[in-house]
Design brief:
This protein has a nine-stranded mixed sheet. A six-stranded antiparallel β-barrel has the order 6-7-8-11-10-9. The protein is α/β, with parallel strands linked by helices. The two termini are 26 Å apart. It has seven helices and 19 strands. It has two domains: 236 residues, 3-Layer(aba) Sandwich (QueA-like); 95 residues, Thrombin, subunit H (Beta Barrel), CATH 2.40.10. Helices cover 19% and strands 27% of the residues. The longest helix is centred in the C-terminal third of the chain and has 13 residues. Strand 2 and strand 3 form a beta hairpin.
């Protein structure tokens, strides 16, 4: 498969895989026509923070890049989980980046107009929690002035912040974009509404997708806070009672909904923390289908897909995506995958 190297939402493609494993290749514009009246499509409306910060490790005078990766306390804009690299930037592949200098509890980092203090090292020399000094408003202003969107080498040109915001972006709490939402546009949302397909949102603090270290990547995804409005839970209840399907736009939506659900599939509104991984042995209680990007085996996002389809089906999907040169990563093509274990009307067929 090919890494998409720039934002391009006009020529994107869509692979649709039904609950029986049947595969179709469409233009992504067909999303406007795929769902039935009574279905509910749920997307993550988190906007993306400028979470890449370059500066100096004060004790050694060594250049560093700090990438904010998670919230220590949701809504506390001054304390984050972060990872660090040495000198360099996104133009070097993440796995080839130089390590940062040895860092210790209490070390200070001068990151443009911001000063951060390392509060704790987390079982890896590049993973830590930090606290920015100064009031919340000053920290957010400093991020806006000095921070950049987290970026990887497959996109050669610098990204502006608006490049990593979806059309429904609201509060800036994500560290990388909830990129499945790049498939959405106002024409598609309007078409769903006219067809009786309901659209709802939740807010999930999407974390980083890669650390450049295989051992550190095993910790992904980190715990991620979410907030689910009551109107979204009511839409889910109505759909479930009427035989509609729940379609999640992205892995973050799946994590939030399944984390907030009782054993009977009822989703609780409010704040929560999505922890742990969803994978092959996870019994999904809420979500019937997922619209996601093109992911490859071994990635945490791909592991989540194993809750939707058997390995043989996923292997066949991967072969198809490779044969048809689908584009990977955040600006790539899309996969619509229906759950493997049908539950009556909600999975009697797909359109």
């Amino acid at each position: 498969m090919i890494a998409a190297d720039r934002p391009d939402r006009r020529s994107a493609r869509l692979c649709v895989v039904g609950p029986d494993g049947g595969i179709r290749h469409l233009s992504r514009s067909h999303l406007a026509t795929l769902f039935r009246p009574g279905d509910v499509v749920i997307a993550n409306d988190a906007a993306t923070l400028p979470a890449s910060l370059h500066g100096i490790h004060v004790a050694s005078g060594t250049p560093v890049e700090v990438r904010l990766a998670g919230w220590v306390s949701f809504g506390d804009s001054a304390r984050f989980i972060a990872i660090a690299f040495g000198a360099g930037d996104y133009r070097t592949r993440t796995e080839d980046r130089a390590p940062p200098p040895p860092m210790s509890l209490g070390d200070r980092l001068a990151l443009g107009p911001l000063v951060a203090i390392i509060e704790d090292m987390i079982s890896h020399p590049r993973l830590f929690t930090l606290r920015f000094t100064g009031p919340r408003a000053a920290v957010m202003a400093g991020l806006a002035r000095h921070g950049r969107a987290i970026q990887y080498a497959h996109v050669p040109e610098p990204l502006a912040l608006w490049d990593v915001w979806t059309v429904i972006a609201a509060d800036p709490i994500a560290f990388e974009p909830p990129s499945a939402g790049f498939a959405l546009d106002w024409r598609t949302l309007g078409a769903w509404r006219s067809r009786g397909v309901h659209f709802a949102t939740l807010t999930h603090a999407a974390g980083i997708s890669s650390t450049g270290d295989p051992l550190l990547d095993l910790k992904l995804p980190l715990d991620e806070p979410y907030q689910i409005p009551e109107r979204t839970t009511l839409a889910i209840e109505r759909a479930k009672s009427d035989g509609g399907r729940i379609i999640a736009i992205g892995t973050t939506v799946v994590r939030a909904l399944e984390s907030a659900a009782n054993d009977d599939g009822r989703v609780h509104p409010g704040d929560g923390i999505a922890s742990g991984r969803i994978g092959k042995k996870t019994g999904l209680r809420v979500v019937d289908a997922i619209l996601t990007g093109v992911h490859q085996p071994g990635e945490s996002h791909f592991e989540l897909l194993r809750a939707f389809a058997r390995d043989a089906v996923l292997d066949e999907i991967s072969r198809n995506l490779t044969a048809h040169a689908y584009r990977t990563h955040e600006f790539g093509d899309s996969l619509l995958l229906y759950r493997k274990d049908g539950i009556g009307k909600a999975h009697s067929h797909f359109t």
